[in-house]
Amino acid sequence: MGVRAMDEERLLERVARGDRAAFEELYRRTAPWLAVRLRRRCADDELVADVMQETYLAVWRAAPAFAGVATGGSAVGWLWTIAARRLVDAFRRRARQARPPAPATLPPMVAPPAEEEALRDAVGDEIGEALRQLAPELRQVLQALVLDGLTVREASVLLGVPEGTVKTRARRARIALREALS
């Protein structure tokens, strides 16, 4: 079986053994969507490029520790977790240097964002509709905490709001979802 015919988990197994061709194929497959997701969180292309480089360096180094190979986890989910945490780290470095990151200002999208598609696929239509009815700031908090698996502190840095605001928005989102579904 050629490198191109493998799924990402198998590619990661080969990367763990030092296979550069598998790493190059993993990068070719995942870098475009990863860059898009990072750009939705940060409008600074230079910072996104740095985070991408740090992410793939971490993947190369940590591939042997990828728990998904043994447990059936998602290689792309693992990759996104690394990237999201690297982005949070980059925001923290910038905050220490007193230069806040440029907020992401994106043109209106024709297609729904990947996070909304993932939410819609992961939940039923009724819950998906309730999620779509949430205010954008509440939906962003849920995406950071639930989909991205970030801590409250990491979501706070990523979204550029205080930790208390993240907690309040998460609570408001849960209440709104509960009311919409009852």
TrEMBL record:
Q: Spell out the Pfam families in the cross-references.
A: Sigma70_r2, Sigma70_r4_2
Residues covered by the RNA polymerase sigma factor 70 region 4 type domain: 126-177
- Kindly state which keywords UniProt assigns to this record, in alphabetical order: Membrane, Sigma factor, Transcription, Transcription regulation, Transmembrane, Transmembrane helix
Keyword check for Membrane, yes or no.
yes
- Where are its TM segments located? 62-84
Ranges for the RNA polymerase sigma-70 region domain? 26-96
The record's similarity note reads:
Belongs to the sigma-70 factor family. ECF subfamily.
Q: Which PANTHER family match?
A: RNA POLYMERASE ECF-TYPE SIGMA FACTO, RNA POLYMERASE SIGMA-70 FACTOR ECF SUBFAMILY
Q: What is this protein called?
A: RNA polymerase sigma factor
Native source species: Phytohabitans maris
Taxonomic lineage from the root: Bacteria, Bacillati, Actinomycetota, Actinomycetes, Micromonosporales
